[in-house]
Amino acid sequence: MGARAKELYGSMVFNEHVMKERLPSATFKSIKATIDEGKPLNLELANVVASVMKDWAIEKGATHYTHWFQPLTGITSEKHDSFIAPLGDGTAIMSFSGKELIQGEPDASSFPSGGLRATCEARGYTAWDPTSFAFVKDGTLCIPTAFCSYTGEALDKKTPLLRSMKAISQEACKVLRLFGKNVEQVTATVGPEQEYFLIRKEDYARREDLIITGRTLFGHSAAKGQELEEHYFGTLRPQVAAFMKELDEELWKLGIPAKTEHNEVAPAQHELAPIFDAANKAIDYNLLTMEYMKRIADRHGFVCLQHEKPFDGINGSGKHDNWSLSAGGENLLDPGDTPMDNLQFLTFLTAVIKAVDEYQDLLRAMVATPGNDHRLGANEAPPAIVSIFVGDELGAILDAIVGGNTYEAHDQSQIDLGVDVLPVFPKDTTDRNRTSPFAFTGNKFEFRMPGSSINLADVNTVLNTAVAKVLKDFSAEMEGQADFTAAAAKWIKHTIRDHQRILFNGDGYSAEWEIEAARRGLSNYKTAVDALPHMLDAKNIALMSEMNVLTPVEMQSRCEVELEHYSKVINIEALTALGMARRSLIPAAIRFMGDVAEAATRKKALSAHISTRTEEQMLQYISRDTDMMNDACDKLEMLMRGVERTNGTYERADYYCHTILPAMKELREAADHCEIIVAKDYWPIPNYSEILFYI
Ligand code: ADP
Ligand code: MG
């Protein structure tokens, strides 16, 4: 980082450094205890912090403050209040109280709640998450908060995440105590890699589908796609480089550790990866990153597309969730150097394997969105089947543990897998399997199923909770065991044996894997609508409520919100496709046909001997395509009327998924075929080549 970057970094954040400098030392100590140990914050303390925070924010140009929260829509929300407090004598002061800092009362009636909250008691409240620092954005002091109803139900995505972090911290600490380690807190860490597309504003402005739905509903694939593999890590276009530089700087100001920026596989696709952080902070940062990407793209003549599948036929965008557990600086998924370290590593590794196997359907449901349906299983992103890749080396070790065999390392050294002589692991796990949805990458897991547009809170809430539950059961099983080492080794052995079906090192895209996975009894929910109802399976409800993360009612509401969201999205897409086809694509084809017919007529008028074969043939082709478009529109319209006849949220979503989407596809096929024969200057929307291969 250059000197300037160093100066910028965190300059707009009310971080620990600022607090230490500005708060009275007793207040700082208390707030630090709140941050580090989750001790409650009292109003007196909050008043002091609020006043100092306000002065700091005003220095940074703030006039307003907002409780910044993450309703179930997944995006962030803010309601701005100014610091102004009129004194009644025509003057005003800037005021911000402790109460305003720790609690807000946004009118919650227009956020989705999945039936959790009757409209008559529409008020929810927001509560400060002091473990995620406040920051100034656009002249507003933003306070990261959780959002709950007055009866205490979580109306947001942050609350359950914080609850799950507490659960995993408690259970992991208990396990570590069995290993003779006294730690107060274990933190779930997350490093989200964000993929996105940058396209030119002028192309975007001419595509109603991109504007309204975030993805192209029409568009024949370009002559060139990503087959030359030249874009990945390729040289950045100068405008893109300028965008990335400004983005990095803006993120650094907010204390967001943006680290790597590079081109991705598809043309016009890029990725940003930050340095990992505690899960709740990392997710706040990711949401801010997404917001800033859009905003900064605009300043560089671009539009940033964050949809999972903006373009058919080329890779979509994901958001890899790199996940691990950290105990006071020790990464619990880092294989150690001594046998005892390795026993601990294997315990946590095994816990993750068991958790992912037992709750594979719940994890799948957490990434189920209409956009992600175009990715999962579409021969590019991971398949819709959850499985774990551990690499050949670690895989062989796990096999040997289950089989009770001696493990022969790749360097030919013998490793005895006896109870008290566990292997020293080879550190270098360079083999990477890009087709795996859940891959162990040496010292962390990388969950690759999440789509680019989602809030990762849900995924990490489930992951933390499921692993916490397995650790809880492990501790219970170890209770009263005379020989902990032997008991733990035995647990590892039988647990891996029982959950071996989830381990898969092969090609996740292959047809054979689908068959093999079915044989193993792994779930394979191809669409969001197939996956989402499993949130309500008894074992999943039991998990979330036993670990005090989500009550059955909260689970129900979340499932409801996601299914409703699914239907709304497809409804918007279908209406947009219909509108575009009827009002611009079909008329464009007719206009072109008119001109071709006119040209042919003129030729004939000039001489009956001139051939009009080309014109006639073109007219035939385009006429056929246009009829097909028109028929497809009629059919889609007719089917859309059927939506009203569906009963309940699930049935409606299912109808959109299995009836409306195929009809949209038919319309698209006819239009895309028409696009490649109608003269380019007649076609009203920019084509894939223009959009993706700009200079
Ligand atoms: P890739 O090859 O997939 O780009 P990297 O090693 O660059 O992988 O890391 C990708 C992401 O994983 C980064 O955001 C990084 O900060 C994050 N990461 C690394 N270690 C951890 C960890 N212990 N916990 C969570 N995330 C981590
Ligand atoms: Mg990655």
Q: In terms of topology, how is this protein built?
A:
Elements: H1 3-8, E1 13-14, H2 16-22, H3 25-37, H4 43-59, E2 64-68, E3 80-82, E4 84-86, E5 92-94, H5 98-102, E6 103-104, E7 124-128, E8 134-137, E9 140-149, H6 158-178, E10 186-200, H7 201-205, H8 208-213, H9 238-253, E11 258-263, E12 269-274, E13 277-278, H10 279-299, E14 302-305, E15 319-327, E16 330-331, H11 339-358, H12 360-366, E17 388-389, H13 392-403, E18 407-408, E19 414-415, E20 438-440, E21 445-447, H14 457-478, H15 484-499, H16 511-520, H17 528-531, H18 538-546, H19 552-606, H20 613-641, H21 648-675, H22 688-692
Parallel strand pairs: 2-9, 17-20
Antiparallel strand pairs: 1-8, 2-3, 4-5, 6-7, 7-9, 8-9, 10-12, 10-13, 10-14, 10-15, 11-12, 15-16, 15-21, 18-19, 20-21
Helix pairs in contact: 6-14, 9-10, 11-14, 11-15, 19-20, 19-21, 20-21
Adenosine-5'-diphosphate (ADP) binds at residues 189-191, 193, 273-276, 322-324, 331, 443-444.
Which residue ranges are poorly predicted, with pLDDT under 50 across at least 5 consecutive positions? Answer: 412-421
What percentage of the residues does DSSP assign to strands (E)?
5-15%
Ligands, deduplicated:
adenosine-5'-diphosphate, magnesium ion
Helical content, roughly? Answer: 40-55%
- Mean pLDDT, to the nearest integer, reads 91
Structural class determined from secondary elements = alpha+beta
> Helix count?
22
The top-level CATH class of the largest domain is Alpha Beta
How many strands?
21
Quick one: biggest sheet? 10 strands, mixed
Could you tell me the radius of gyration in angstroms? 28 Å
- Corresponding CATH architecture of the largest domain: 2-Layer Sandwich
Quickly count the domains.
3
Distance between the termini: 29 Å
| CATH H level, superfamily name of the largest domain | Glutamine synthetase/guanido kinase, catalytic domain
| Shape category | globular
The CATH topology of the largest domain turns out to be Creatine Kinase, Chain A, domain 2
